[in-house]
Amino acid sequence: MDISALNEKIKQESAFIDLLMNEIGKVIIGQKAMVERLIVGLLGNGHILLEGVPGLAKTLAIKSLSAAMKAKFQRIQFTPDLLPADLIGTMIYNQKDGNFFIRKGPIFSNFILADEINRAPAKVQSALLEAMQERQITIGDQTFKLEEPFLVLATQNPIEQEGTYPLPEAQVDRFMLKIKISYPSREEELKIMRQNVNDLEKIIQPVISPQDIMNARSLVHDIYIDEKIEKYILDIVFATRSPKDYGLDNLTGLISYGASPRATINLALGAKAMAFIKRRGYVIPEDVRGICLDVLRHRIAVTYEAEAEELSSESVIQEILNKVEVP
User: Fold this and answer.
1) Which of 298, 294, 304 is nearest to 166 (CA)?
2) Could you tell me the CATH superfamily of domain 223-323?
3) The pTM is what?
4) SS3 of the chain: helix, strand, coil, percent, to 5
């Protein structure tokens, strides 16, 4: 398909984005970047990790997204005593006929809200890992495919660390995006206060179906990405692994390990999803730069020396973006 024809098709097929954002905007005031990135995860078939202090509408945003989609939604509160069976289900013995039958757990849904994901031990995280990567669940000797779209949206609180377990690196890498949420502006908080104090609760209406998302995903894959932009993505990722090769000598010794090949894939997919949201059939460098922090911030580990200098993975990414030549 030529670019102009693809552009026209994207303009027609992406009309639901405005409907979706307007519907979620009924209950979520501000936080436009967060809502946009939730839609990027949805279009890119990737899981999302949301980090922010309590009360910033992380849970509400995810619930609103599933309500606007008429999809199955389950909220799982992760606690230190949670068991894998509480998540995926288990085999139960039936005394009448002397057989075992399978009772499926809450993970058999389209949207899984894993609230405070870092509070559950490694056993539970490993059960979640199979669902996130293989999109399947094994109970006993049976394996069940999960219904598409399947999305894990996890939240974690960056302040309280007591009673939490650090997420395994392999699991963190499986999140397409890590979104950091900040406080609302003064005007936004005034609207939030008025909406809640005056009991102006609004009900989200379903505006799209899961099938619409599946159709949009196949269109996202068709979006044109030029070879120069592909090389730009590779340069950004490779600069996290070998900063010296890109004239970033000051970062040598500050990065413990760089981004994995999943970062390259997700950066390209995220850029295509951003182009779709902006109603374009092709990717521009701004799409890559716009999603870069969210794709890379959890995939780069900084050394103790960097921490001593108060350098975070975000400041490292910003320095790389400033240095790597834009096509």
Assistant:
1) 298
2) Magnesium chelatase subunit I, C-Terminal domain (1.10.8.80)
3) 0.86
4) 50, 15, 35
